[in-house]
Amino acid sequence: MEKIVYFDHAASTVVMPEILQKFQEYSLRYYANAEAVHLLAYEAREALKRAGESISRSLFGDKDHPVIWGNSATELFRVLASCREFGEAAASALEHPALLANLSNFTRLWTMPVDRGGKILAAAQTPDICCLHQVQSELGIIQDTAAIFDTVAPRCRMVDAVQSAGKFKLDKNADIWVISGVKFGSPGGAAMVLAPDGVFTDKLLAHAENLRRKDYAVGRISVPLMLTAASALEKSVENMAENGSRIAEINNFIRQQCAVMGIMPTLPETAAVSPYILNLLLPHQESAVVIRALSQRGIFAASGSACSAESNTPSPALTALGFPAKKAYRALRLSFGAGNTLEDAEIFISGLKNVLKNY
Question: Is 78 helix (H, G, I), strand (E, B) or coil?
């Protein structure tokens, strides 16, 4: 069997064997319903408490940041958006569709514009909550969340850290951070991490408890998955510098090889982007067609937007930057994970050359 090259880690990461081993251990020990009254449930709740402290230490160096567990980041966005403490929100058009869909339930949603390089152009608005990505999921744009928050001056600051947790240091001055285990090597599990002294921390904790146990608006969490997510995050943070250096080398190699083929990054060179995400603009080929051809060679990536043959709607992120639909359909997204190597990059370049030759 040929080696599989997986460059779609922004969607879901490959789970490393040692993390799978952790999941198996947790599944065999913490299988009981954590909401029951027996001893096994008590042990599961204590394990969740320790896991929450582990996430706090991994991200901020202390054990004081409370955690609201969730089965996915989308579920946690729903928890946030259903909190009646917030009436008006601000966010950019580059936020994840799942976040924007939930924020649309607020009384008012201010949409902040972005420039051609994807930088959010903030204006003083003073909403109840401002929600920003640290790393944009499709283009890899890195935002200076602290500076934007200072300009917008919201009552509550929320960071979508789904693409940055375990890869970058987070903005410690925010009030809420949302992370997802499938983005840093866990088979599942997500968490909303709260500032210890946040104005809305206690209210959000109570709101989440009511949603789960009183309103039944969110599902019961899997204790083994939450514990595994905490372990995966700890490992990612421990290896952050090493992983980042290797991923940057892979990213730079592909950029150089693609430039020879006339394929350039979608964003200008001056844009601040994560090395974990590389969005490329194909010369004239639709990326969805290229992706299907690559997958037949064991190479897996993602399109920057849906194929026009399958959808008439191009990527909202690219159109927000002013890209016409014709160009948006040519965007190819590569996203890298801890297990990727330069050999993977070489195989990708060879496969891409053959696909474009026979397009």
Answer: helix
Categorise residue 166: left if φ over 0, alpha if ψ from -120 to 50, beta otherwise: left
The residues, ordered by sequence, that sit 6+ positions from 213 with a Cβ below 8 Å of its Cβ are 35
The residue with tokens 């799978």 is: 20
Q: What is the pLDDT of residues 67-104, one digit of tens each?
A: 999 999 999 999 999 998 899 999 999 999 999 999 99
The pair of three-digit structure tokens given for residue 319, joined into one six-digit string: 């159109």
How far, CA to CA in Å, does 48 sit from each of 30, 113, 171, 199, 244? 10, 39, 24, 24, 29
Whether 76 contacts 70, CB under 8 Å = yes
pLDDT single digits (tens) 220-267: 999 999 999 999 999 999 999 999 999 999 999 999 999 999 999 999
Nearest-10 Cα torsion for 97, 99, 105, 106: -130
Strand 129-133 to 156-160 pairing: parallel
Which residues contact residue 220 at a Cβ distance below 8 angstroms, ignoring those fewer than 6 apart? 33, 34, 35, 212
Which pairing describes strands 331-335 and 277-281: parallel, antiparallel, or unpaired? antiparallel
Phi-psi region of 262 (alpha: psi -120 to 50; beta: other; left: phi over 0): left
Give start and end residues of each alpha helix (H) in 261-341: 287-295, 316-320, 325-328
Specify the amino acid at residue 21.
Q
pLDDT, tens digit, for every residue of 95-136? 999 999 999 988 899 999 999 899 999 887 889 999 999 999
Of the candidates 8, 45, 44, the one whose C-alpha atom is nearest the C-alpha of residue 26 is 44
For residues 291 and 323, the answer to whether their CB atoms sit within 8 Å is no
Other beta carbons within 10 Å of 144: 15
- Kindly state the DSSP code that residue 115 receives in the 8-state scheme: -
Residue 269, both tokens: 């060179």
The set of residues, in sequence order, having a beta carbon less than 8 Å from that of 8 and lying 6+ positions away, is: 300, 301, 302, 333, 335
Angle between helices 342-357 and 287-295 (to 10 degrees): 120
| Radius of gyration of the chain, Cα coordinates, nearest whole angstrom | 21
